[in-house]
UniProtKB/TrEMBL annotation:
Residues 73-227 form the Phosphoadenosine phosphosulphate reductase domain. This is FAD synthase. The gene is LOC100215894. Keywords: ATP-binding, FAD, Flavoprotein, FMN, Nucleotide-binding, Nucleotidyltransferase, Transferase. Pathway: Cofactor biosynthesis; FAD biosynthesis; FAD from FMN: step 1/1. The keyword Transferase applies. InterPro entries: PAPS_reduct_dom (IPR002500), Rossmann-like_a/b/a_fold (IPR014729). It catalyses: FMN + ATP + H(+) = FAD + diphosphate. Its EC number is 2.7.7.2. It comes from the Eukaryota. Transmembrane segments: none annotated.
């Protein structure tokens, strides 16, 4: 498994005039910057991943040309796809607004029976990547109704939706919610990314992701509807990490819905 990229910012404090007492106040996991992505954003970069990154970058550029930062949030479930989107957003905000530590608003619609590992990863992302997470314990539609009341400034939700997801074949990168739903612009920077490109991105840049993916899960929902992918099971009963899946059309085999 790739080593996840970490930078520790340690602060030394002399307590009660005892300079030998060290107190670690905080650490930050480093997020992507424009310089990390620059080679992929170059016009001469022609690899499939570079093309995918350029498309996502263009969607983010249009997003912040259209909406203010207060009008944008990221739908975050702790899954691999929205994790990619989070890091792309952070890198874009650093480059566009010259932020050192950009702050984004996240939306976590917490359904029934989430995995503890997912909850832990979401909490880590809040702390390590400066995400102000709005947590609503509700199904999607009811959760968006509540969001309208509690955070009326938000007009758009950036999502990790890909074409392989259910009901996504006809979507565009900018798609309004259906007329009988609370009205939000759904923004999908990685809509046309492949499963392989998602994992190539996470692994090349050594970005942290939910540990369930190292245990044989390839698509994560809730404990009641998610199982390890049988295509990753070895003869000894153990499972390979998700990025080893060869038959990418079986990505959601472990999901009941």
């Amino acid at each position: 498994m790739p080593t996840q990229k970490m930078t520790y910012l340690c602060f030394t404090i002399a307590y009660n005039c005892q300079p030998d007492l060290l107190i670690v106040l905080a650490f930050l996991i480093s997020s992507l910057s424009f310089s990390d992505l620059e080679c992929h954003l170059s016009s001469s970069a022609l690899s499939p991943l570079s093309s995918a990154i350029k498309c996502a970058w263009a969607v983010l550029h249009q997003t912040y040309d259209t909406y203010s930062e207060e009008e944008v949030c990221i739908g975050f479930t702790g899954g691999k796809d929205c994790t990619v989107v989070l890091h792309l957003m952070l890198a874009y905000l650093k480059q566009r607004f010259n932020y050192e530590f950009p702050k984004v608003t996240g939306l976590y619609l917490k359904g029934a029976d989430p995995f503890p590992e997912t909850e832990k990863f979401i909490d880590e992302c809040q702390k390590n990547f400066n995400v102000k997470m709005i947590v609503i314990d509700s199904c999607i539609k009811d959760g968006l109704l509540k969001l309208k009341k509690t955070h009326p400034l938000i007009k758009s939700i950036v999502m990790g939706t890909r074409r392989h997801d259910p009901y996504s074949l006809s979507l565009r990168s900018f798609s309004l919610t259906d007329s009988d739903w609370p009205q939000y612009m759904r923004i999908m920077p990685i809509l046309d990314w492949t499963y392989g490109e998602v994992w190539e991105f996470l692994n090349i840049f050594q970005l942290p992701y939910c540990t369930l993916y190292d245990e044989g899960y390839t698509s994560i929902g809730y404990t009641i509807n998610t199982h390890k992918n049988p295509y990753l099971q070895l003869s000894n009963g153990k499972y390979l990490p998700a990025y080893n899946l060869e038959n990418v059309t079986s990505e959601r085999v472990g999901r009941k819905n």
